[in-house]
Amino acid sequence: MPHTSAWDIPLGFLLRSAWKGDVKYLAKDSLFKSPFGFFFYWMGGYPVDRSKRNNFVDAVVDIFNSKERFSITIAPEGTRKKVDKLKTGFYYIAKGANVPIVMVKFDFGKMEVGFSEPFFPSWNQEEDFKFIYDYYRGSIGKNPEYGFLYD
Protein backbone atom coordinates (compact mmCIF):
# COMPACT_ATOMS: atom_id res chain seq x y z
CA MET A 1 0.00 0.00 0.00
CA PRO A 2 -0.61 2.54 -1.33
CA HIS A 3 -1.63 0.60 -4.43
CA THR A 4 -2.00 3.33 -7.07
CA SER A 5 -0.36 1.96 -10.22
CA ALA A 6 -0.02 -1.18 -12.31
CA TRP A 7 3.73 -0.80 -11.63
CA ASP A 8 3.04 -1.98 -8.08
CA ILE A 9 2.62 -5.51 -9.46
CA PRO A 10 6.14 -5.95 -10.92
CA LEU A 11 7.58 -4.20 -7.85
CA GLY A 12 5.72 -6.68 -5.67
CA PHE A 13 7.02 -9.62 -7.72
CA LEU A 14 10.56 -8.27 -7.37
CA LEU A 15 10.23 -7.91 -3.61
CA ARG A 16 8.67 -11.33 -3.31
CA SER A 17 11.66 -12.88 -5.09
CA ALA A 18 13.90 -11.51 -2.32
CA TRP A 19 11.62 -12.80 0.46
CA LYS A 20 12.38 -16.15 2.06
CA GLY A 21 9.30 -18.26 1.48
CA ASP A 22 6.54 -18.94 -0.98
CA VAL A 23 4.25 -15.90 -0.99
CA LYS A 24 1.04 -16.05 -3.03
CA TYR A 25 -1.21 -13.14 -3.89
CA LEU A 26 -4.87 -12.35 -4.45
CA ALA A 27 -5.94 -10.34 -7.51
CA LYS A 28 -9.04 -9.56 -9.54
CA ASP A 29 -10.15 -12.54 -11.61
CA SER A 30 -10.00 -10.67 -14.93
CA LEU A 31 -6.19 -10.85 -14.76
CA PHE A 32 -6.42 -14.64 -14.91
CA LYS A 33 -8.19 -14.80 -18.28
CA SER A 34 -6.64 -15.27 -21.73
CA PRO A 35 -4.27 -14.44 -23.19
CA PHE A 36 -2.02 -13.85 -20.15
CA GLY A 37 -3.94 -15.59 -17.40
CA PHE A 38 -1.48 -18.48 -17.23
CA PHE A 39 1.24 -16.01 -16.22
CA PHE A 40 -0.69 -14.79 -13.17
CA TYR A 41 -1.39 -18.37 -12.06
CA TRP A 42 2.25 -19.30 -12.66
CA MET A 43 3.33 -16.35 -10.50
CA GLY A 44 1.31 -17.72 -7.59
CA GLY A 45 -1.94 -15.84 -7.95
CA TYR A 46 -5.38 -16.70 -6.62
CA PRO A 47 -8.23 -15.01 -8.55
CA VAL A 48 -10.91 -13.05 -6.70
CA ASP A 49 -14.38 -12.64 -8.22
CA ARG A 50 -15.37 -9.17 -7.05
CA SER A 51 -18.67 -9.13 -8.95
CA LYS A 52 -20.59 -11.20 -6.42
CA ARG A 53 -20.74 -11.78 -2.72
CA ASN A 54 -19.35 -15.09 -1.59
CA ASN A 55 -17.66 -16.57 1.44
CA PHE A 56 -14.24 -15.50 0.21
CA VAL A 57 -12.81 -14.74 3.64
CA ASP A 58 -13.84 -18.20 4.90
CA ALA A 59 -12.39 -19.84 1.78
CA VAL A 60 -9.01 -18.16 2.30
CA VAL A 61 -9.05 -19.00 6.01
CA ASP A 62 -9.65 -22.65 5.01
CA ILE A 63 -6.60 -22.52 2.71
CA PHE A 64 -4.48 -21.21 5.60
CA ASN A 65 -5.79 -23.93 7.88
CA SER A 66 -5.15 -26.69 5.34
CA LYS A 67 -1.48 -25.87 4.78
CA GLU A 68 1.52 -26.06 7.04
CA ARG A 69 2.91 -22.83 5.54
CA PHE A 70 0.95 -20.27 3.55
CA SER A 71 1.43 -16.55 2.93
CA ILE A 72 -0.49 -14.15 0.70
CA THR A 73 -0.32 -10.52 -0.29
CA ILE A 74 -3.42 -8.40 -0.56
CA ALA A 75 -3.87 -4.76 -1.56
CA PRO A 76 -6.22 -3.65 1.21
CA GLU A 77 -7.66 -0.83 -0.90
CA GLY A 78 -9.04 -3.42 -3.33
CA THR A 79 -8.28 -1.16 -6.32
CA ARG A 80 -5.71 1.27 -7.72
CA LYS A 81 -8.22 4.11 -7.61
CA LYS A 82 -8.79 6.52 -4.70
CA VAL A 83 -10.71 5.05 -1.75
CA ASP A 84 -11.77 6.60 1.55
CA LYS A 85 -11.40 3.46 3.62
CA LEU A 86 -9.76 0.07 3.38
CA LYS A 87 -11.56 -3.15 2.61
CA THR A 88 -11.73 -5.39 5.66
CA GLY A 89 -11.23 -8.84 4.12
CA PHE A 90 -7.48 -8.92 4.84
CA TYR A 91 -8.21 -8.17 8.47
CA TYR A 92 -10.85 -10.89 8.87
CA ILE A 93 -8.65 -13.41 7.04
CA ALA A 94 -5.82 -12.74 9.51
CA LYS A 95 -8.18 -12.99 12.48
CA GLY A 96 -9.90 -16.15 11.19
CA ALA A 97 -6.64 -17.93 10.37
CA ASN A 98 -4.88 -16.57 13.48
CA VAL A 99 -2.00 -15.25 11.40
CA PRO A 100 -0.19 -11.92 11.61
CA ILE A 101 -0.42 -9.05 9.17
CA VAL A 102 2.88 -7.73 7.84
CA MET A 103 2.20 -4.33 6.37
CA VAL A 104 4.24 -3.30 3.33
CA LYS A 105 4.37 0.22 2.01
CA PHE A 106 5.59 1.40 -1.37
CA ASP A 107 6.63 5.00 -0.67
CA PHE A 108 7.51 6.55 -4.02
CA GLY A 109 7.94 9.94 -2.32
CA LYS A 110 10.94 8.64 -0.35
CA MET A 111 11.79 5.95 -2.94
CA GLU A 112 11.70 3.20 -0.34
CA VAL A 113 9.78 0.12 0.65
CA GLY A 114 8.91 -0.48 4.30
CA PHE A 115 7.93 -3.64 6.17
CA SER A 116 6.20 -3.64 9.55
CA GLU A 117 6.79 -6.13 12.30
CA PRO A 118 4.19 -8.93 12.28
CA PHE A 119 0.96 -7.57 13.77
CA PHE A 120 -1.74 -9.86 15.18
CA PRO A 121 -5.19 -8.23 15.09
CA SER A 122 -6.83 -7.83 18.48
CA TRP A 123 -10.52 -7.84 19.33
CA ASN A 124 -10.63 -4.05 18.99
CA GLN A 125 -11.10 -3.41 15.27
CA GLU A 126 -11.24 0.37 15.69
CA GLU A 127 -7.84 0.48 17.44
CA ASP A 128 -6.35 -2.04 15.00
CA PHE A 129 -7.37 0.05 11.99
CA LYS A 130 -6.03 3.21 13.66
CA PHE A 131 -2.69 1.39 14.02
CA ILE A 132 -2.81 0.27 10.38
CA TYR A 133 -3.74 3.75 9.09
CA ASP A 134 -0.97 5.32 11.17
CA TYR A 135 1.59 2.94 9.66
CA TYR A 136 0.70 4.04 6.12
CA ARG A 137 0.09 7.74 6.83
CA GLY A 138 2.43 9.89 4.73
CA SER A 139 3.30 7.14 2.22
CA ILE A 140 3.13 8.41 -1.35
CA GLY A 141 2.06 6.04 -4.14
CA LYS A 142 3.31 6.19 -7.71
CA ASN A 143 0.13 8.13 -8.58
CA PRO A 144 -0.28 10.18 -5.39
CA GLU A 145 -3.77 11.45 -6.19
CA TYR A 146 -5.07 7.86 -5.96
CA GLY A 147 -3.31 7.07 -2.69
CA PHE A 148 -5.19 6.13 0.41
CA LEU A 149 -4.73 8.80 3.11
CA TYR A 150 -3.19 11.19 0.56
CA ASP A 151 -4.29 14.75 1.22
| Main sheet: strand order | 2-1-3
Order of helices and strands: HEHEHEHEEH
| Helical content band | 25-40%
Mean pLDDT: 84
Radius of gyration: 15 Å
Helix/strand structural class: alpha/beta
Q: What is the overall number of helices?
A: 5
Number of strands: 5
What composes the largest sheet? 3 strands, parallel
Shape verdict: globular
Whole-number tally of structural domains: 1
Strand content: 5-15%
Cα end-to-end separation: 15 Å
Low-pLDDT residue intervals, each spanning 5 or more residues: none
Task: Give structural attributes.
151 residues; three-stranded parallel beta sheet; two-stranded antiparallel sheet; 5 strands; 32% helix; 14% strand
Secondary-structure blueprint:
Elements: H1 8-18, E1 23-28, H2 37-42, E2 45-48, H3 56-66, E3 71-73, H4 89-97, E4 104-107, E5 112-115, H5 125-136
Parallel strand pairs: 1-2, 1-3
Antiparallel strand pairs: 4-5
What can you tell me about this protein's structure?
With 151 residues, this protein is α/β, with parallel strands linked by helices. The chain has one domain (8-146). It has helices at residues 8-18, 37-42, 56-66, 89-97, 125-136; strands at residues 23-28, 45-48, 71-73, 104-107, 112-115. β4 and β5 form a beta hairpin. The longest helix has 12 residues, at 125-136.
Gist of the model:
The chain is 32% helix and 14% strand.
